[in-house]
Amino acid sequence: MSIPEITQKLLAAKQNKGLSFADLEKILGRDEVWIAALFYRQASASEEEAKLLVEALELDASYIQELITYPVKGLGPIVPTDPLIYRFYEIIQVYGLPIKAVIHEKFGDGIMSAIDFTLDVEKEEDPKGDRVKIIMSGKFLSYKKW
Amino acid sequence: MSIPEITQKLLAAKQNKGLSFADLEKILGRDEVWIAALFYRQASASEEEAKLLVEALELDASYIQELITYPVKGLGPIVPTDPLIYRFYEIIQVYGLPIKAVIHEKFGDGIMSAIDFTLDVEKEEDPKGDRVKIIMSGKFLSYKKW
Amino acid sequence: MSIPEITQKLLAAKQNKGLSFADLEKILGRDEVWIAALFYRQASASEEEAKLLVEALELDASYIQELITYPVKGLGPIVPTDPLIYRFYEIIQVYGLPIKAVIHEKFGDGIMSAIDFTLDVEKEEDPKGDRVKIIMSGKFLSYKKW
Amino acid sequence: MSIPEITQKLLAAKQNKGLSFADLEKILGRDEVWIAALFYRQASASEEEAKLLVEALELDASYIQELITYPVKGLGPIVPTDPLIYRFYEIIQVYGLPIKAVIHEKFGDGIMSAIDFTLDVEKEEDPKGDRVKIIMSGKFLSYKKW
Amino acid sequence: MSIPEITQKLLAAKQNKGLSFADLEKILGRDEVWIAALFYRQASASEEEAKLLVEALELDASYIQELITYPVKGLGPIVPTDPLIYRFYEIIQVYGLPIKAVIHEKFGDGIMSAIDFTLDVEKEEDPKGDRVKIIMSGKFLSYKKW
Amino acid sequence: MSIPEITQKLLAAKQNKGLSFADLEKILGRDEVWIAALFYRQASASEEEAKLLVEALELDASYIQELITYPVKGLGPIVPTDPLIYRFYEIIQVYGLPIKAVIHEKFGDGIMSAIDFTLDVEKEEDPKGDRVKIIMSGKFLSYKKW
Amino acid sequence: MSIPEITQKLLAAKQNKGLSFADLEKILGRDEVWIAALFYRQASASEEEAKLLVEALELDASYIQELITYPVKGLGPIVPTDPLIYRFYEIIQVYGLPIKAVIHEKFGDGIMSAIDFTLDVEKEEDPKGDRVKIIMSGKFLSYKKW
Amino acid sequence: MSIPEITQKLLAAKQNKGLSFADLEKILGRDEVWIAALFYRQASASEEEAKLLVEALELDASYIQELITYPVKGLGPIVPTDPLIYRFYEIIQVYGLPIKAVIHEKFGDGIMSAIDFTLDVEKEEDPKGDRVKIIMSGKFLSYKKW
Amino acid sequence: MSIPEITQKLLAAKQNKGLSFADLEKILGRDEVWIAALFYRQASASEEEAKLLVEALELDASYIQELITYPVKGLGPIVPTDPLIYRFYEIIQVYGLPIKAVIHEKFGDGIMSAIDFTLDVEKEEDPKGDRVKIIMSGKFLSYKKW
Amino acid sequence: MSIPEITQKLLAAKQNKGLSFADLEKILGRDEVWIAALFYRQASASEEEAKLLVEALELDASYIQELITYPVKGLGPIVPTDPLIYRFYEIIQVYGLPIKAVIHEKFGDGIMSAIDFTLDVEKEEDPKGDRVKIIMSGKFLSYKKW
């Protein structure tokens, strides 16, 4: 899972500036997860968004072009080895079919879009140990019949 | 992705009884996703839960033993081929590293547990098209140093 | 690539009745490719469609239930070995990135839906040798930013 | 899916010149998808085509030799991770056998050529959302018996 | 590499009748390799060919239908383990690119068809040890430009 | 399928000299396919052959040592993606078992050697389209019993 | 690694008769490893050898036909999981290239045949712990140049 | 199967000095196969062995440190593509279970060690063609019960 | 990960008798993990051990033969999908090289045997949550030089 | 299994200073295995730990930043080829299900955490050959029901 060079430079600049993704959320008006996706070149910015980011990170304007390019997506090995990312793979292995069954029951035959899609990460404070909350929201797409 | 025989029988009984997972949620006092996981033998019931389910589905009591057994989990092919399930795999490929970056920023080095974990599926009505909402909540586990 | 049992029975019944997929197109009011997808349990019928098909094939009404079930989709080996199907895989290997480049140029960042999607197979008569024409039409989905 | 160096240079030159693949279609007299395939070194140009392209992009004549070389083709990972490209893989998984069934019914035993083959990408404007139209046309090749 | 049931029955019948593939070549008027491909359901017979074979093997007429069906082709594991078959895989690994270079030099950009294709196996007697001669003949297909 | 550096230099030199593999066949007294295999470092030359080749291509004498080294062989991905090379893989998938059946019938239990082996590529002119003819000849090796 | 049914029956009969492979070595006049290979259907017997074995094991004569058939060979998973068999795989991973280097130095470019080949297993008694001795002897095959 | 840089330098030095592995056997007092394993960094030398080798090859003393390091072992692709090395893989596929059966019969449940292990390569001169003899000797290790 | 039939019968008998592996430990005089390994046919019993087990489970004496057979070992998919078993795979991915570094520092070049090996599972009670303790003990095996 | 550059520099510095992981254990107040994991960038240090290490190794302060970064974890090939590391993989293949059975019997449905986890490597002196002792301790995590 080699990290693209531009990602490394963006991360280093962000660290030098002492900015968190949450700080960038305020500057760009986009969610921190989407911004992180932009860092890893899994999303493409508008020219305006790219400029805001490049300014915030005090980077060279030449980065703008790269950030607005539509990337070839998908970062990883077939089965992720990083424990944090693997847990999401495990959730598919264990809960994939049950989720499918419940979605079909609620919506009929179709899927949850991963394109018309948002994902938030929240921290739930809990005396028994804080919890990571992931909220995904994807448009339901019915299979078209023809 | 061959469905275990017991799953097929449970699904058939549920259909004959005209029950949804949401109906079973009221009977068992467990979330519909967890119940669907039990159907696919990705979760194990207590004896009481097993009895309630077997009664609700009017199945033979011999199913109880099977439902309380701790299963060998994991259902699928390495890369899921079903479009609905694949979208979750795609989310890992595209948003896996960004999610990791944001979780680490909020919590430090560690992971979201997939064991001390809940998952809900909700229907968000939306005039532009209903949306599937997935809410995961997993305990944050810090890496122990020793 | 083991063919599901129901598919084998549907194909046998269709052959006994001397019906082509094109004949069924007229009976069901659905495209022949979609009907073939239903045969291979890659699509789910409405109750009415299932009844029409079962009647046309003079099959037992018990098939209706199975045809309206939402199937777990995806039929094949990771790389298809059948020469006809492999050619489509080859088209992805060879023309995948070029298609991506052209779609992005015409539409921006997003994808062609494979759900809000139709596919037609036509025969183009040609003195130098008939041609297979495949027409796919999928809704363009823009990446949502959030 | 590492992009060959020549591809990167061609894409950069095209961008500097502000040319789209559609613009190049007019200059070369070849379809934009074929030209994109040439960019990704999945097709080989005639010397004349190479010259036209190199001139249009104001590149060094040394590129001509490379563009007329017959490349080793196939660009990608076994299962594509890019969502746009993956959808075509999914179409094979879901509709591969149905397409095979319909082609055989219309043509007999044989395949659609991926060599004597053309592929067009069109934009279908639609008030409910524009659609991507892919038209493939491949010569039908009957299995020779001997 | 599980052998289809029909193949086993055809092979057993052939053995009972004491017939070689070369004998069947005379009866069917087709090459022995093509007939062997038919046995392994990698080729489809015309009704007449199927009848001739079924009669020669004194099998039930019900086999005819199966022999004229267009099969899903491809028999094996990804890398063949049988030493005889593996040698052909090794030839691709070792001589694949050299063959490609020579074919391109002689014919230009294109491929050898595996559909408009014949394959013969001959025995070359040789005092230093008999030799297996494989003669493949496939139509050269030029890449179509569009 | 990354081409070794020496191969690239040999191919470039051959092109600069305007020599075909068929021309080199006359100079080296070896078949063009074997020479192409030497280019791709899938064969090792004698010192004399290496000298002849280096002289013909007007290369530095330092290449001789490399050309006489016994290489680690095997060039490619597990399943070849290049369409020309893939067709040979397809031939194994489709005709592998039939070829095995016919060879065993003609020769008994054993294999065709891929070491005591020659391979020729010929152009068969044909008004319906030229054909690629591949002739392999490998010594039959009987399984030794002990 | 599913064991073929005939292997299971041969092994059971051998056990019932209280015979070791070493005992069968005396009866058949073949090495015990070759006989074990015959049991696992990785070798084919002559009719005489098959009769001797069937008699020794007091099996039905119908086994003879099966034992003289030329099998499709290769038994296992790609990487063996059984610890005893895996050690041989490990030897290839660790000593494969060194063995290649030494064989080439002693013999030139070529291979050790695995067909004109014998393999013996011996027990070396040793006060520090008995040792397994494996002796392979394969004909050296030089690469033919053509 | 990329060869480590140190291996390439050791092989080049050995060639420049005109030494065979057999020559080095006399200098180091270790078997030629073990020395070849050291070259490929599949074995680690004592300081004394490393010095002897570095002197014999007239290399810089800085190589000593690298040669005494305990390496991460295993050189190759999962299934070896080099024909010489593949034959050993084939031997596992074909004779793996038979060898297991014979070892168990002679020794009980356990394995042949690949660590307390030696491997020799010998040339057996034979008028019908020289033979490669491989002698492996590994300590038998019984499964401990606890 | 299909469980062998004998394992299912042993597990069912154990459950019917209300015995834990810890109870069987007292009866057989073997560790509970080893006994579980015997259940899953990953270990072989002596005749006496097999008898004790069969009596304790009140099973038919015919099981004895099966339990003393030396099994083909290895149970699972290449990457385990069951979360409990996967964690051990993750430990190899994350701590494999660090463990290797520490073992080499303490012992020199060699390995921990997985054959002369014991493994215990203990429950460590802990007010912050009980802990699973795994204790492995394997003989250190030095690489033999030869 | 390419070792990250920082790991190579840390290992070289450690060697130059003549320090073992056990020595570093005293300096950092962390276990030697955890420190080795830090070297291989499978663990992240606190700023204080990073400083102590950098000072002990007399490295540049610029390493501190890298050592406190949360790494993407997982080092290796899917099936490890290094013999020492492979033995742990083998233990999963052979004892994975038995361990699962015993843990479930002692603790119920859940897993051993690999995050709230420690691992020690000890040397057990033994006249019959020293033994490697691995002690893992991971918090038991019960599956949450919801």
TrEMBL record, chains A, B, C, D, E, F, G, H, I, J:
<feature type="active site">
    <location>
        <position position="87"/>
    </location>
</feature>
<comment type="function">
    <text>Catalyzes the reaction of cyanate with bicarbonate to produce ammonia and carbon dioxide.</text>
</comment>
<dbReference type="GO" id="GO:0003677">
    <property type="term" value="F:DNA binding"/>
</dbReference>
<protein>
    <recommendedName>
        <fullName>Cyanate hydratase</fullName>
        <ecNumber>4.2.1.104</ecNumber>
    </recommendedName>
</protein>
<dbReference type="InterPro" id="IPR036581">
    <property type="entry name" value="Cyanate_lyase_C_sf"/>
</dbReference>
<dbReference type="Pfam" id="PF21291">
    <property type="entry name" value="CYNS_N"/>
</dbReference>
<feature type="active site">
    <location>
        <position position="113"/>
    </location>
</feature>
<dbReference type="InterPro" id="IPR048564">
    <property type="entry name" value="CYNS_N"/>
</dbReference>
<dbReference type="InterPro" id="IPR008076">
    <property type="entry name" value="Cyanase"/>
</dbReference>
<feature type="domain" description="Cyanate lyase C-terminal">
    <location>
        <begin position="74"/>
        <end position="146"/>
    </location>
</feature>
<keyword id="KW-0456">Lyase</keyword>
<dbReference type="InterPro" id="IPR003712">
    <property type="entry name" value="Cyanate_lyase_C"/>
</dbReference>
<dbReference type="InterPro" id="IPR010982">
    <property type="entry name" value="Lambda_DNA-bd_dom_sf"/>
</dbReference>
<comment type="similarity">
    <text>Belongs to the cyanase family.</text>
</comment>
<dbReference type="Pfam" id="PF02560">
    <property type="entry name" value="Cyanate_lyase"/>
</dbReference>
<feature type="active site">
    <location>
        <position position="90"/>
    </location>
</feature>
<dbReference type="GO" id="GO:0008824">
    <property type="term" value="F:cyanate hydratase activity"/>
</dbReference>
